[in-house]
Structures are given as structure tokens and as C-alpha cells.
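Appendix B. Chain record.
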Amino acid sequence: MQAMTTQHIPAVQLPGRKPLLTRKGWGAFFAALLLVCALAPVLNLWVPQGSAFHLSDYAVALTAKIMCYAIVALAMDLIWGYTGILSLGHGLFFALGGYVMGMHLMRDAAGPDGLPAFMVFLDWKEMPWHWALSGSFAATLILIVAVPGLVAFVFGWFAFRSRIKGVYFSIITQALTYAAMLLFFRNETGFGGNNGFTDFKRIAGFAIATQETRMALFVITGCTLLGFYLLARWLVVAKFGRVLQAIRDAESRVMFSGYSPLPYKLTIWVISAMMCGVAGALYVPQVGIINPGEMSPAASIEMAVWAAVGGRATLIGPIAGAFIVNGAKSWLTVVAPEFWLYFLGALFIAVTLFLPNGVVGLLRRKKGGKA
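C-alpha cells predicted for this chain:
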């Protein structure tokens, strides 16, 4: 009987984990860190006003505001670009983080035993229960991520368990945000009504109006954006990120492979909401106001436009998109404010038809890379 020979089967080489950043990527990262932490403060605080190299207070405030928006765009990319979940309600999470910070700033401006100005105007005698922790800065820092995260977890748990997806999920997120906006508009809810919160004085014991405090907030915002970029990059290059992309491309196959999409979708949904909450909290002391308008449907749609213009599933693209769109908005609302919404709609249509991979995709094609 002829002996059977076993054929040697070569071992399958699984792809290794990608590095967090390439050498050029780390170089760009540290260059951005140096720009935020060193160059910008020098140009604003120590270069004399009137010099061509002086960074004006307006430029600092505008750049800081756009960096807050860039954090939101990055959060949108994680759920839309990498997971395929289009949310039209992320303005809710951004506003919740902003309201938590605004409540603390209003409480601080009123003094230890005082009531915020709008409560005095409405002749309230005591604070509502949900203002109980607003006097503590440490508690505020926790609530900035806890409140949006909890709301996102509860909503996502029921939505993802019910397997709501696609346009139906987008509509529900926008309906949730619109309902929250109507709730916050009411004076009796204790959120300042349609005027919201404004006239902030101090943050962590420092006067907000001083140039040094505004520059410190600028640096914190820039470092937070860079930190969230590294976090997002770490998530997407790991096995977790590969599963997210598989869910985006073929969720049914992921289920047949033995993975439950629910924990992955819920986890990235909550992380994305927390990122938006932090962005909102950084936005409020620098802009000086928070009101229910941040929850409007148009605000949430703009967030999706930032990610689409820059390029989904690229991480750096949505950040660039936030700067491009909001830079154009800042210029156009001064030159021709009545045309801004028409420009925004035309921009979204043009990107959808001619630049499906956004600005980053266009640049990659020109370099001969894969878009």
C-alpha cells in the first residue's frame, strides 16, 4: 500500500497592525503641536500689535472656534466614514457639553449663594435639581463627557438593538435633536430659554476676557484636537477599527463571521458623542454664548458637510473640511451673508457629485495614490 505523503501547507501570514503614524505623520503632528503650543502664543502675546506677524485676538477666537468644530468633524468621521452610520443629530451632543460648561460658568458668575441672571429675571427662588453639581468645576469636567455619553448610550442601545439603520436612523437622530431643541427653548426647563447662557466672567478662577486666558483656551483646544486625532487613529488601525469598517461595508457578513455589531456600533457611537461634548464645552467659554440654536437641524447637517467636504474615512479630511467650510462661512457671511446657505447647499451637492472622497481624495488622486 502506497504511503500517503502530506503536502506542506505554508502558514498564512496575517496582516500586521498598522503603525499609529508614519514618520511623516509624526513630523506633521509635532509641527502642529509646536504651532499650537509655542508659535501661536508667541505671535499673539509677545509680538507687538500692528506688526505683520501679530496674531490678532479675532484670529485666535476664530481659529479656536473652528478647532472645536474640527473635533466634531473627527467624531462624525468615526461613525459615518468608518462605521457607515450617518447621524444628523450630533448637534445635540455638542450642545449638551456646551450647556454643562455654560451652567458652571453662569453659576460661577452669580457667586456662591446667587442665582444666574435669567433665574433672577424669571423670579425663581431656588435652582432646579439638575443644577446641583454645576458649582463644582471637577464635577463639570466629568459631566461634560458623562451627559452626552449617557444620552448616546440610551439612544444607541434601543436604536441599534432594533437594527435601525440607513436613512431611518438619520431621520430619528434629527428628530431627537429637534425635540431636545424645543425642550431647551422652554423657560421652565431651567436652561435660559431661547437666549441660553451668556455673559460669562471667569473659568477655573481666571477672567475669561483677558488675552492670556483666551490664549490658554486656544492651546487647550488645539492640544485636545491633536489628542483626539491620535485616539481616533489608534482606534481605526486596531482590530476594533477593522471590524467597524467591515460593519460599514457588509454588516450581514460580519454577523455570519461570529461578530455582534451591537457592541462595536454602540461603543463608537458613545465615544463620538463624548468627543462632541468636549468640543461643545471648549466652544462655550471662547465664543461666549450657548443657546438652543446649536441643536437646530441645520447645525447638525453642517457637521456632516464638514466630513463630506474633507473626505470621509481619512481622519485628517474632516478636520480640513471643518476649516475649509467654516473659513468660507466666516468670509462669506461678512461679504454676502444672504448667499451663505445657498453656497453651503451647492457645496454639498458638488462634493457628492464630483468629489465623493472629498478634498483629501482629490489630492490623493493627483499624487497617484488610492483615494
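Further analysis of this model is presented in Appendix C.
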